[in-house]
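Methods: example folding runs. The two proteins below were folded one after another, and each record is reproduced exactly as written to the output file, sequence line first and structure-token line second.
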Amino acid sequence: MTIMTDIAPIGVTKAETQLSGILWERLQQEAEAAFVNDRALAALFVNSVLNRSSFEDAVAHRVAARLGNETVPAHLIADLFAEALAGDASIAPAFQADIAAVIERDPACERLIEPLLFFKGFHAIQTHRLAHWLWVSGRNDLALYLQSRSSEVFQTDINPAARFGKGIFLDHATGLVVGATATIDDDVSILQDVTLGGTGKERGDRHPKVRRGVMIGAGAKILGNIEIGSCSLIAAGSVVLNPVPPNTTMAGVPARAVGTTGCAEPSRNMNQILSQLVYDSFNYTI
């Protein structure tokens, strides 16, 4: 069990330190129970959780284990995570918020140990956090290597220059593409096969800006330097080419406003079913 103190690391609040301790205690309990229940995975539970020193260390070690290969071994990636965590006080709280988002929003997830060990969406986000830290630190080649490696392992292609907030939930994650000048604010949920891309060969600021609380449904494409207003909902399969006001539901190809979202934060509600009223608002021509 982690011993909590009243002294938080530099740049980290006392509340964040306490949350990390709570997460870590629960993860250790779940790992101990899993170890007893299935000895076939004993090495995974021991190496990934029971032999680690903290929640952040466990996340870094597990993601590094999945990314490591002959070119860049896992222990070097774990060392890079340790550098990033020491150099940027925002990364550890983002780890915490991201895993909490999975528990809160994924009905198939009942234990913290599940995203920590198995969920590639959670792993892809943490890989990007490391790659982004390397990018802004001027270590571009290593950042691009991690982007490529993440694409290979987790089937997500997130440019290391893209900016992510915390509390991000990637459900399934397969096929996600995020361009270099994209911004994703706090508490956003994104399903599989989503593209946050440009509209062609333009240079400069050319990718979407997704504000807090947005949910983007499976297969949606958002193209260009446009803002997706806070707490909006982008329906599955939609193609969004124009800015979206806050609290707006967008659907169709090309997407158009079909109503308000009907809840304060679609990213937390995770309701992807459009109402009958919304369906009736479409005017199809055969």
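Second run, written to the same file directly after the first:
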Amino acid sequence: MPEFGPEELRALDRAHVWHPYGPMPGRSDPLVVESASGVRLRLAEEVHGQRELVDGMSSWWSAVHGYNHPVLNEAATAQLGRMSHVMFGGLTHEPAVRLAARLVEITPEPLRHVFLCDSGSVSVEVAVKMCLQYWRSLGRPAKQRLLTWRGGYHGDTWQPMSVCDPEGGMHELWQGVLPRQLFAEAPPADYEESYARGLRDLIARHADELAAVIVEPVVQGAGGMRFHSPEYLRVLRQACDEHGVLLVFDEIATGFGRTGTLFAAGHADVAPDVMCLGKALTGGYLTMAATLCSSKVAEGISRGEVPVLAHGPTFMGNPLAAAVACASIDLLLGQDWQREVRRLETGLRDGLAEAADLPGVKDVRVLGGIGVVQLDHDVDMAAATAAAVREGVWLRPFRDLVYTMPPYVTDDEDLARVCRAVGAAAAAG
């Protein structure tokens, strides 16, 4: 392959590469990254006086251990020497089995069964399919709708889009085409009994048609970076049990310690019937996700007229990704990750406090390794990004939000730099 200079790369990128949530051809030039190590992205050329940027995004929340980590590199290299991939139909292998067993060990009871898939969005698709097929297998095919609350985001494939916020969300275009689901109002930050009563009533009224309730526990991610009381998870669990509805937690963004507990469900000590995992599962090295379910769900499906879950991605259970995922989980749990996330939380609270006084700032909120500055207007993406880069930090604001979810290995000095960049981006945007 010939080596391209930055200008040639940008020209080819603009002509041929379709970036996420972008037009084709592209209208802005992305920064060219040539390497990454620790928490830093090395650019192919100097931009706004910077050649290296501290990554304040963990590559969309996945690279919790940073980049080029020797433990994860070794896991990938060792597995490459054995096999990078083998089909999962009719075959199995140690990395996938070991990963499934590890996930069952660390997730809440009664989650006992693991379906390995290749992206977070697909894990939600699989979760929905599990719930629909469970009720069909029990002779109740009318239970085919989903309930969620507004402000959520669950992915870009079909069923996940149907439970994203239908108004003002990224998938508003598909109203009238997607399955029509049920939406409660967005959950308040603090516990309100009137809101909880409304959730209970909504589930009770629609129990005969509801297959499942699906929510992001405690933190709504790309739908708006909102935090809500864990008590609502207990309300949902009780109402679902009372009215015969399955409960699904989408922990793709919140899993593996990001909110201060290993899984956000731990804030409420509540277990779902189905759980979706992704993003940090492999430490940001390879794409892999997982859908876990209880024995009740698995056995219900297996007793049905079609006694199999008819889903099987080509790269399901990929040995390379599974090996790195096992190494990533061991790396996380082999250290005092809670102390590190608490350190991030303290640094973000202290570092972002002054942003509350900036003109146009509506709210500043922090939970675990998540820091959010919400504006009273949509962010000027170009201006905000440039301001962060000038501070030596990579951020990716969206809508009215400038936020950061840094790698857990970000030290205090770099964390302070990230906070300064968030403030600069908020002021410029």
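Comment on the second run: The longest strand covers residues 40-47.
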